Structure formats: structure tokens, C-alpha cells
Structure prediction request, 549 residues.
Amino acid sequence: MRRFEARKEAVSRRSFLASLAAAGAAAALRPPAMAAYPAAAARGPILTKPIPSSGEALPVVGLGSSITFNVGNDPAAENGCAEGMRAFFAEGGRLIDSSPMYGSSQQVIGYGLKKLGQPKPLFSADKVWVNDGEKGPAQIQESEAQWGIPRFDLLQVHNLMGWEEHLPTLYRMKADGKLRYVGITTSHGRRHGDMEKIMRKEPLDFVQLSYNAVDREVEERLLPLARDRKIAVICNRPFQKGDLIDRVERAPLPPWAAEIDCANWAQLLLKFVVSHPAVTCAIPATSNVEHMKENIGAAYGRLPDEAMRQRIVQAVEKI
Amino acid sequence: MSEWWTYTLSDLILFSAHAYYRLFELYNAAVWPAQIAVFAAGVAILERALRARSPETVGRWIAVLLAAAWLWVGFAFHAARYATLNTAAPVFAWTFGFEAALLLILGAFRGRLVFGRPETVAERVGLVLSVLALTVFPFASVLSGRGLRAAEVFGLAPDPTAVGTLGLLLLSKPRPRWPLMIVPVAWCVATGAVLWVLKTPDFWVAPLAAAVAVGAAVAAAVAKRSAARR
Prediction:
């Protein structure tokens, strides 16, 4: 496995100041529904990392919506998701990621955002997922309508589907001010070769890929390349769709987890992911309020250095 | 580079077992008390199939009722409800509609389904599968801890409808109708795969029922061919 530098750079002074500025702006712009959120300042500022192409600071833990937000037309589950989103924003979260592929997830996110009074801190990340490039703009419009927002912050080509046709559309939207960032995604270790080629030649702001304490293939080429090309990295599947959590929770949390302010396995696994120097944020998917709080707790306190990262990998591999 | 083949089944099942069975709870609540009427219709179908005095006429009517069940499940379950979770559900809806059309053409119009008392092994297997679909499937949700509100009822839910149809097709004489078995068997395999990905403990029930049905149908066809040679 590659060795990494200690993660002191990850929470830079610039990102710290940016997060303070963002928190101040969010407080000033806070709509009535946001006023009910308890302050998360007691644990210090949320850890952020800059998006390399702009310097904008993003909290290192976001929220994925695959599976967990796909609840159909179930009012009770929709409200449960909205409460999860309330906890997410209350704890300082910003980035929510979805896709037209995720069934009712976009609609449920839209319901939650409306219920919470369209929280200003939201960093909206969605995807275009259709073969035919000509159908991309219509799908994006439909996604915006589902979310109930005028524009996305980030749009990504889902699993590289039709990327040759979609990327020019997304670049055009960005140039016209209808989009802030452009990216591509993959998951489960699929098509890394294609992803590398696209990363080398396209002016991307973001890539999204699967990375966790077990699936570390991306450490070899994609993460170093993202760093070289100044591309932000979103990591999906930090818990292997729950399988990794199920596996590690058979063992007690190592006592040394307290050295990096981890109170549970979820935080230890997330801190492993977001402490990689090339990683901008992880997007664990949950709609459960308690799990949400656990997850975003990984965006507070100390992060592991390289020696501690190795320790986490070894601890997981032993289970 | 559409690369559909790079997706595994688990990449495409983007909902949880909880969300899937909540779908049945909400569906059952919405159609209540249709479950009672549909269960009674199922019992009547089986009773008529076993005691048919005019086997061909009864066969045509059973084909019409089965076609109605497939059409209903395709529309009310797959298209109207399952599609909110699974982007492939509209395809399932059309497939169930196709099976309904086949039942009407082959069963109702051409009279290819003829029923009577089960005499061969395949026909007895058909009876067992039919009874299983009618009476055991609804309570499987209770045995699996999902509660009666998530019960899957023959004629309303896809799995017992497919298994029950396979049972009735095995019961039909003089031999099972292969074209009519293709969609139910395919559905049993598909639903088993989905439930396996969802880690549902009873994921094996429908695929096993389909395997038994296919095995019994093959055995019946071989036995008939051997008898004809003699």
C-alpha cells in the first residue's frame, strides 16, 4: 500500500477560516426552519477541505442517498429521511448526493429540503444517468424539479454513462452560470482505466469513486492522479453498503480510536477515508438520525496520520 | 460507452428490504379488503380446476381469471408502486401484461387449459404448488417476522401469483403448456435474485418452486413421449 503524508495539511488554516466564514454566512442567511438547529460549535469547527478548482471549503462528511432515501411513496419513511436531513444540517453537513438512478431518492430529498425550509448550507450534487446525450438536459431539469432547487452545485456523469456527450453539456452549463462544478463517477471499482483516461484529459472539478478501509485499489493510481490534476474526490461506499460496518462491529472498538476522537466504528472508518490527502469528502448513506449523527461526528476532532491509518487497516483486516 | 454489463445485480437493486416490504404493507392497506375476495376467487379456481364437470369451459374461465390477476399485478403493483423503488419495474409491468395476453390467447380463446382431478405426478406437484401459493405465501411474511400487513396474496402480489400459475399450469391436461410457463419461471428466478441481494431469509422459496415446476413439467413431457413410443 502507498504511504501517505501525515494529514496536518488536510485541515488548513485557509479551510478553517473558510468554514468559519461559511458558518457566519449560513447563520446570517438562516431561514426560520434552520433556527431550530442546535449549534454544533461545542466540538470546534467542522473539518473541511478545499475544492481544488475553487478553494471553496466542504465538510469532509457528506450524505449519500443511494438505497436509504429510495423509500417509494411512503409518508412515514419520507418524514424519517427529512429528520435525518435535519440532523445532518444541524451537525454542520452540506453536501448531499443523489442520482436519477436511485428511484425515489431525489423526490424524497426535495421533500426534506422543502420541509426544512430550503437550508442555505446545502451543496447539491446530482448526476446525469442516461445513454443519449440529447436526453441529458431534460433529465437534469427533471432532477432539479425533484429537488425543488433552481440549479445544482455539482453535476456528475453517473458511472461514465455517455460521458463523451454529457461533459460538453455540463461544461456549457458551467460557463453559462447554470452549474458550479462538473464531475464524473464510478463505484464498486468499475472502469478505473476509463476513469483515469478521462481524468487526464478533461478539466474536471470532481471525481467520485468507491474507497474504504478494505477497497483501497484507488490509492494506487486514481487518488494520486486526482491530487496531481487538482480534482476534488468524493468517496462513495465508505461502509461497503453496510457490509463493512456489519463486519467490524463484531469486534470491540479499539481503545486507540479515542486518540483520534472516534466514539464508534463508523467514525473510525470514515476518518480513514477522509484522512487520505487526495480525498475531499466521504458520502455515507443513511436516513437514520442516530447513524447520521455518528457519521458526521467523523467530521470533528483529530484525523489519523499515516501510522494511524495503517493501524485502522490492520485492525479491520484482523476481523 | 453505455457498458450495461459492468453493472452487477447488487448495483441495480438500490432499495432496502425494509422499503420493499413497506411497499406491500402500503399496497395491502390501499386495496383492503380485496385480499379476502381474491383469496376466495383463488380457492374457487382451485376447486373448479379439480372438480370440473365441463373441463374445457372451466379451463377458459380459469385462464381469464389468471390473465386478470397478471394484468392487475402488472398495473397495480409493478407500474403503480414498485416503479417508485425500482427503475426496472415498468419492464416487469409489461412482462406481466404479456403473460396476461398469452393466457387469454392460449387459455381463453384456444382452450389449451383443460383441468380435472390430478392423476400424474406432475399434476399432483401442480396441486401442491397451487395450495402453497394460495395458503402458505400470505403467512410467509409472518413466519419471516415481517407481519401480516406485508402479506403477499395470490392474485395481488407477484410471487404467489407466479407460483400459483405454475401450479395450475402443471395441473392442466394433457400436459403443461410451456409457452405459458416462461414468464412465471423467469419471474421466480428474478424475484429470488432480488430477495437474495436484499438478504431476505426466504429468498429461495419462489426459485425452488419454479425449479420443482420445471422439473415436474420435464418429467411429464418425457413420460408422455415414452408412452407414445410404446
Remarks:
- Strands of chain A lie at 48-50, 57-59, 63-64, 95-97, 123-128, 152-157, 179-185, 206-210, 232-236, 281-282.
- Confidence is low (pLDDT under 50) at residues 1-41 of chain A.
- The longest strand of chain A covers residues 179-185.
- The domain at 7-318 of chain A is CATH 3.20.20.100 (TIM Barrel).
